[in-house]
Known about the structure:
The structure holds two protein chains of two kinds.
Chain A: H1 13-16, H2 23-43, H3 46-72, H4 80-97, H5 103-122, H6 131-150, E1 163-164, E2 168-170, E3 173-176, H7 182-205, H8 207-217, H9 219-224, H10 229-256, E4 258-259, H11 266-279, H12 285-308, H13 314-335, H14 340-353
Antiparallel strand pairs in A: 1-4, 2-3
Helix pairs in contact in A: 3-7, 3-10, 3-11, 3-12, 4-5, 4-6, 4-10, 5-10, 7-8, 7-10, 8-10, 11-12, 12-13
Chain B: E1 23-34, E2 37-48, E3 52-56, H1 63-70, E4 78-83, E5 86-88, H2 93-99, E6 101-104, H3 116-122, H4 132-137, H5 141-160, H6 175-188, E7 193-197, H7 205-222, E8 225-229, H8 233-239, E9 242-247, E10 250-255, H9 257-261, H10 264-271
Parallel strand pairs in B: 3-8, 3-9, 6-7, 7-8
Antiparallel strand pairs in B: 1-2, 1-4, 4-5, 9-10
Helix pairs in contact in B: 3-6, 5-6
Amino acid sequence: xxxxxxxxxxxxxxxxxxxxxxxxxxxxxxxxxxxxxxxxxxxxxxxxxxxxxxxxxxxxxxxxxxxxxxxxxxxxxxxxxxxxxxxxxxxxxxxxxxxxxxxxxxxxxxxxxxxxxxxxxxxxxxxxxxxxxxxxxxxxxxxxxxxxxxxxxxxxxxxxxxxxxxxxxxxxxxxxxxxxxxxxxxxxxxxxxxxxxxxxxxxxxxxxxxxxxxxxxxxxxxxxxxxxxxxxxxxxxxxxxxxxxxxxxxxxxxxxxxxxxxxxxxxxxxxxxxxxxxxxxxxxxxxxxxxxxxxxxxxxxxxxxxxxxxxxxxxxxxxxxxxxxxxxxxxxxxxxxxxxxxxxxxxxxxxxxxxxxx
Amino acid sequence: xxxxxxxxxxxxxxxxxxxxxxxxxxxxxxxxxxxxxxxxxxxxxxxxxxxxxxxxxxxxxxxxxxxxxxxxxxxxxxxxxxxxxxxxxxxxxxxxxxxxxxxxxxxxxxxxxxxxxxxxxxxxxxxxxxxxxxxxxxxxxxxxxxxxxxxxxxxxxxxxxxxxxxxxxxxxxxxxxxxxxxxxxxxxxxxxxxxxxxxxxxxxxxxxxxxxxxxxxxxxxxxxxxxxxxxxxxxxxxxxxxxxxxxxxxxxxxxxxxxxxxxxxxxxxxxxxxx
Lengths: 358, 275
């Protein structure tokens, strides 16, 4: 009933190429955006900004970057964490070298640094694929983290070996650093994430997205329809690394406030990869659903016993948490191997039919 | 401008400035070896503009290798190929596409995760040029280009009568339709030479009749030159203007179907002969 698509005819290709050919989808997105931009910021506490909302957005953005490479272009990467690090360190160097530079510009520029590094480490993809490529990205992961540790210039030779985010103002409002208000940071991250997501949707549904998907599904046939494999793969690495780099810069500047090299180590890469896989490879929506499950669920579970007044030791909560989250992930993958996004698709198809299933 | 499109415009062949009946492609003394295995030995034949040329032969005769040489998957050790008056030896498949050679595969080589529409749109990749910047914004030039090509693709979809599966992922389609989508993708490239590797393999009679009709229409209405490999002799003899016969990598006959049919060497190759 609610999702009835009958009667929504398209009379031009222009209308058929709209972002949401079905009206209800547009309404749904509108409601989500109202929640994200208006209702949540008004009601959320400082804790939920820092522990839930901002990290979900940033992780979803990183997963989106990885999804473009792995889900759309079919090139498996295990080095996402390190590329996030490249973005973060690049942003740090740019901000400390040009303190007056607008932080949006700095973050946008640091994405380009990450994209360049991504393309360099993407070069092996021209000759190898699948697990073998994954191994070379793993090499990138280890090499880059080692570089963050050993190359003093990157962290301005600070004695701790870590990077510290200074207070950064934009149009008179502190957006990053110790003095920034969580709600400002939330809006900043939300703005960047919305914009990048919109760009990503546009790229993936157009000529370039088709090119990537063609390479993913059958590279020989892709070459046969005139797709230059080198261009397709390297552009996927560039766009993916750009987004991952921006996510890395946000990760440190708008959320963590400081970072050590080992923050970008392999657990971060795996975390982002899990989000992309559980959310659904080859889907934009999936990254958000995956990030909610992987990032937000443990936080929610951790606060539940306290809220319900159940006297459990915090260590026990930690253990239970790991078990519940692990079991949920396995459950979702067993029920729907193609990820949460596919789950939503099925629900949507059912809703379109409902209540007349024939 | 808005007049209904002529049916002949449906499958526009690349404008190559070659008159029908003149030489489109000339294969001269091509030999291909894999180590010590000779796949093709000293084969010469030509394809004239506007004809349907068949390559036949028993299994392992080197037919598919020949197509692979033509569209750049393999580089022959000896010999030359002249296409549209330009001689070339080593080339990449995507260069062949740019020259106007499109191809379908023996085992369907579609993009399984993509819809029929996207598969055929992918066939137009070479003709679309809007860069990343425009693609990011979507509205404006990128969308205009997309719609312009969508119109061409819809013509092909109409022509092949696959409107009902426009949005279906091709992995879910039955084999016969997949073959048709693959033909559609090749047509979307608007080739001057269309290579078909066993377009009717594994089809029933009705599907074969449909496919034959499509091949004849592509050839007849638009003058697209076709070079096909097929095992169904009835189909080959009915469709093709000229046939070249390979056996063990060598050419044993070349000519109009009737001559080839009565050639003793061809009969021996197909039926076997007591040594």
